[in-house]
Each structure stands twice: as structure tokens, then as C-alpha cells.
Amino acid sequence: MTVARTEPTYRNPVLNADWSDPDVIRVGDDFYLTASSFGRAPGLPLLHSRDLVNWTLVGHALQRLEPEAEFAVPRHDCGVWAPSLRHHDDRFWIFWGDPDQGIFQVNAPEIRGPWTRPLLVKAGKGLIDPCPLWDDETGEAYLVHAWAKSRSGVKNRLTGHRMHPHGTELLDEGEVIVDGDRLPGWFTLEGPKLYRHDGWFWILAPAGGVETGWQGAFRSRGFFGPYEEKVVLEQKDTDVNGPHQGGWVRTPSGEDWFLHFQQRGAYGRVVHLQPMRWGADGWPVLGDDGAPVAVHRRPDLPPQPPAAPATDDDFPGGRHGRQWTWTANPKEGWTTQHSADGLRLTCVRSAGAHDLRTLPHVLTQRLPGTPCTVEVELRLDSEEPGARAGLAVLGDACRWIGLQRGADGAVHLVHRFTEASAEEERDADHARPAPGGRARLRVDIGAGARCRFSYDTGDGFRPSGQVFAATPWRWVGALLGLVAVAPTGQGHAGAATFTRFRIGPPAHG
């Protein structure tokens, strides 16, 4: 029996992995959170909590990215940026910006779906970070969004629109309602979340960049402004750099809380929970008088059992858990279902077999934000010369360890890496025999996401290669990956079977 926690405090981060650009809502006694998923599929992760501290992953709102053809190959930093999650008219709604296409929307009667196909609400380059608001007082609906300079040539401003109450279209061309260039010291204003409170329109929006920025609050009596501004959360003398971009939520007892991210290099954007209150001047006060808290009293909510998004997987029946996502839209035949445990990954023939970063059929999950040991067992079932499979740490630079079938028919343990600026992989250590085509693979991930690879081909774990410092992509944290691949050619190239994937405490000895 799982026992509910009784500790009076919690410690940040509450989600210690790359749950980028979080947004949160409450429906009854349940809290729900979504986050950016960029070019991975499925996208739009859906997390659930009863206490704002313990979270589980319950599904995804977006099964495939559109247009399908554009996401048939990895586009690691594109796709789903900064979604907003809302509950209105007995439906869940998610709006997000694709910087290359425009503002999309999906909705569903229940958090687990079924979710609608993506609807393009507004087409355009550089339209990002949209957030809707249905004003219960007037029946009007609005939407605010930011701009990506890389696509539009414009940034540091928020544009507001009237929106059809059905959430299907915008009713005007929009106008700039907050211009960060007119605010001394403000830059890279983005990520707006729109609310009504105490007779005001509120926009909670970050500025200053993901590494070093702050959280701003803006208020106006009318949606189109003018808005007053105030910085409500910043690093101050803490070690939480750039604390910003998230959502406000109120508990049934009336407590206010704010969830936001902190950029942590290869670990991506981890999620913190800040207390929030409304000051005597009517402005929100976040954290400890505007500074992030490391430890704080837990929210006034019923105690819950310890929980976190799943990581381990036995792959029952050949199916992978919902914590896994592909690096592009998946194709039928990449996995094979069967009656036992274990993930059978097809050795997909690919011209890009020499660079895992370019492959769409890499199955990934987030790199944990604390030191840990990652292990998986692998059997290479392919007889194809050059077929290979393994465990990878993927980012702007990549390293993997696994098995490869040689031209002589033997299977070898191989360990390879690709530098950030390189397109071809190199050996990280000498190849070794792998009797029976089997191996246990391990990555010990220490402080600073420094990774030590090792293997066991039957006589205990042995270290392999030099320490590898994991790296993020531009907006995405490093990823753990399972992959099977074969050189180009004709016919089926066989498969690889992964079993007992585990992420545990750091190994010693």
C-alpha cells in the first residue's frame, strides 16, 4: 500500500527534468499541466497532480505533428512551442505556437481525450506563445501571443486579438498591447499567460531570456491596454537563474501558486513551484518576496503518495510506456508487438545511420535532472552486416553504446560519439566481442550531466571511453535514446530487443 506523504514541506524543483514552458490549471480537485514538446511525437504531454508537488504523466494531446511530411524527419527545436492549457465550457483547450506555421488549437471533453485534430487558428511566421481568455463577465473571448524574431524579425512585444468564443478563429488583425521596447531595461518579452482577477486583465509574462530573465506581471482595466508592469520574480541572491515563464493556479481553499521553469543546460527546463499572494497594492507577490524558494510549506491540499513521471519500462507485449517519444512522426513497423516483455525495435535502413541526431526512429525520454544510473539490456537479432542498436545520450553532441553486426558475422560491442560541429561519428573506444549478441548497457550520469558509459557482455560491467558531457539542443534538453538502425539496402534488416530499462540512484563501485 502506498502511503501519503506527511512532510510539511516540499523542495524545488518539483519536476526535475525538461518539462519546458509549463502551464497549469485546476479542474475540481485535480491539477493538470502541459509543456512544450517541440519536434517530438507524440507531443503536448499531459501531467496530473492532486497536490501540485507530485505529478504523473497521463497522456499526450497531440499524437502526430502537422504537416505530417515536414515532421517526418527530426526538427528538434521546431514544432510545439509554449502551450497554454485552459478549461472552458466543459472542455480542455490547448493553444500553442509553431514558429514556422502559426497558432494551433486542440480541445477535448476529458484530459485523456479524445483530442481534436490540430486547428490552425492564425497562420503566420513567428507567432508564438498564444494564450486564450474567455471573459465570464462579458462573454467576450481574447487571445494574446508573442513573437519569434528568428521568423518574423520582431520580438519583445505582445499582440492581442479578439477571439471567437468557439476558439476557432480570431476576429481582428490584432494590435500590440504591450511593447517591451518602450519599457526601460526590458527585452525578449514572451510567454504571456492571460487572466482576469479583481476587475483587471492580467498578463503574466517573462522577459530577459531563458538563462537570466525574470517574471513580469502586467495589468489593465481593458484588454487592449494600457498596461502597467512590475517585476514579480527574479533570481536575486538565489541559485535559481532566470526563474520565469509559467502559470498561476488557485487551490480550492483559495491559496495561489505559480509554476515556472529554470533553464539548467543539458537538463533542460526544470519546473519550480512558488507560493503566490496578492499584496496590499493589488500586485502578485511570488516566492519569498519576489525571490524563488528552495524549500517551502506544502500547499493546503490533501496529502498524496509520492509520485513522479514514469521512467522505468519492461515494455510489456512490446509496447513502450507513455514517457517515450519519437524524434519525428513515427511510421508503422518501427516496433513489433508480441506476447512477451521487451521492446523490439526494427533496424530501420537509413542513409543517416552514421549520425543518430538525424534519425526519426530514435525512441527518447527526458534526461533526469539529478545524478542517476541508466541501464538497459540489449540483444541484436539482426544478421545484416552493419546493423547496430544501442543506448544513446542525444543533444547537439551525441554518444551511444551498443552492439553492431560485423562483416564477418560476429557481433561487437561498440561505443561512438558525434561532436556538435561534426556530421560523422567516431569511435569512443575500441570495439570488443559480444558473445551471443547480448549486452547490458549502462550510463552513469553525474553532476553537470557528465556521463560515463559502461557495458557487461557476460563478465561484469567494464568502463568504456572518456567522460562525455551531455549537451542540449538550442531549446531542448539532452535526451536518453534507444535506437536500432541498418545501412541502406533491400529487404528487412532484422531487429534489436531491449529489456529492463531502468533509471535508478547512482551506481557505486
UniProtKB/TrEMBL annotation:
MF terms in GO: hydrolase activity, hydrolyzing O-glycosyl compounds
Domain of life per record: Bacteria
Domain named Beta-xylosidase C-terminal Concanavalin A-like: residues? 313-502
InterPro entries cross-referenced by the UniProt entry: ConA-like_dom_sf (IPR013320), GH43_C2 (IPR041542), Glyco_hydro_43 (IPR006710), Glyco_hydro_beta-prop_sf (IPR023296), Glycosyl_Hydrlase_43 (IPR051795)
Gene3D superfamilies on file: 2.60.120.200, Glycosyl hydrolase domain, family 43
Does the UniProt entry include the keyword Nucleotidyltransferase?
no
Coiled-coil zones: none
Q: One Pfam family of this protein, by short name?
A: Glyco_hydro_43
One GO term (biological process): carbohydrate metabolic process
Q: What keywords does the record list, in alphabetical order?
A: Glycosidase, Hydrolase
- Reply yes or no: does the keyword Cell membrane apply: no
Regarding protein family, the annotation reads: Belongs to the glycosyl hydrolase 43 family.
Name the chain's protein.
Answer: Xylosidase/arabinosidase
The organism is Streptomyces griseoflavus Tu4000
